[in-house]
Amino acid sequence: MTEAFSTDQAKAVAIGAIIVVVVIGALLSFVVTKITGRLIVAAVVVGLGIFVWTQRADIEDAAKQCDTPTFFGIHLTPSKAVTEHCQQIR
Question: Which of 35, 42, 63, 76 is found 20 to 30 A from 2 (Cα to Cα)?
Fold first, then answer.
């Protein structure tokens, strides 16, 4: 049996993904010399960062409401802290 992706793991991956996107964007801005290319790279980096951050926020909101959270469409297993919280409020 495979273990499911937990909410804590998904939040950590989201933060890591934001860092990776920013680093790749910074590296690409050094390679791309024209201002138009740099602006496009910056827009893509900001857009991806916002998208990943909203996914992370959705995980937290769903966990607080004791719903099954998803991360880019993958259903997550609530972490131990979330499970305990939901048992206390039910």
Answer: 63
